[in-house]
Amino acid sequence: MEAVRASAAWVASRSSHVKVDMLEVEKVVDKIQGNVPKVEWDFEGIHYFDDGPLTVQYLFVLDALNFCFWPDKDLSYDHLASGLKLALEKDKTALDADRLQSYTGPQLRQLLNWPRPLPIEEERVRLLHEVGMELERSFGGEAANLVKSAGNSAATLIELITRHFPGFRDHSLYKGHQVFLYKRAQIFVADLWGAFKGQNYGEFHDIKSITIFADYIVPAVLRELGILKYGSNLSCSIDSNSEIVPGSEEEVEIRACSVYAVEKMRELINKKFGKQLLSIDIDLWLWSCGVQNMALSHHRTLSIYY
Ligand SMILES: Nc1nc2c(c(CN[C@H]3C=C[C@H](O)[C@@H]3O)cn2[C@@H]2O[C@H](COP(=O)(O)O)[C@@H](O)[C@H]2O)c(=O)[nH]1
């Protein structure tokens, strides 16, 4: 994911609302002595897994909808993961490509057992239809075929996903430059890798090319650690739960600086402690810390990308 790494670094070098504090990166790395706590994929025990193609279909649908839970204060990622899991356990055809194309908002709510409209529900429905339609048109209806056609390359899989499914094209413009963050496409690869433990549908020879997933939890943890420093206006907006406009300099800087900071952290750990750590390992550690800390205030942007 050179495009993600390069554009995140480009933003970080010009950023004015967000700064990456390299001294703090070093302090954190020294404090943990290069030992990033290992967090198991599905540490919550909420995901569907049957070791076969249906798991791939589940993960692809999951990550097509893996964004913007915060507008409903009772809703979280866990509801989506466990809701889709239960739906699949009740009816193995619930996520078939033809079914995906016909869900309405109320039916999606029912599928997830959620009592009220989901945040940005119309977009969630549109994205489900897009996934169903394109899987049927180009991949025999199965996300497993999409994964197979990437030939065990994470970078190829991300390229295929973003070429075929416009909803995964997580780009923005920053000071005239195109910035690529590909949060949901990358997290799908990481979910396959985690769920299948690097085997079968989860085998990728270039898994180290994946960066962290620029969501709204990891930046909040990096800020809490002192690694990200926000300017006073941005700090006030976030602490008062004001919405940050999608595509604004602030929003792009928060996400891109998070990717950049963790890349620096990984490089430092690997160099100083002779490790072969992946950004995914750091991501899951930071994310799991973030979701367990209810007091963290995170940035709020209405977005279908994260
Ligand atoms: N960077 C990063 N962001 C992640 C995840 C995951 C879940 N990954 C699963 C994979 C294996 C584990 O067992 C996890 O269950 C969700 N998110 C993002 O968080 C936000 C949801 O927050 P809240 O509203 O509090 O539920 C939202 O933007 C969502 O897209 C991750 O791993 N890394």
From TrEMBL:
Substrates-to-products reaction catalysed: queuosine 5'-phosphate + H2O = queuine + D-ribose 5-phosphate
InterPro entries to which the protein is assigned, alphabetical: Q_salvage (IPR019438)
Keywords: Hydrolase
Gene Ontology molecular functions: hydrolase activity
Organism superkingdom: Eukaryota
EC numbers for this chain: 3.2.2.-
GO biological process: tRNA modification
Function recorded in the entry: Catalyzes the hydrolysis of queuosine 5'-phosphate, releasing the nucleobase queuine (q). Is required for salvage of queuine from exogenous queuosine (Q) that is imported and then converted to queuosine 5'-phosphate intracellularly.
PANTHER family: QUEUOSINE 5'-PHOSPHATE N-GLYCOSYLASE_HYDROLASE, QUEUOSINE 5'-PHOSPHATE N-GLYCOSYLASE_HYDROLASE-RELATED
Similarity annotation: Belongs to the QNG1 protein family.
Name listed for the protein in its UniProt record: Queuosine 5'-phosphate N-glycosylase/hydrolase
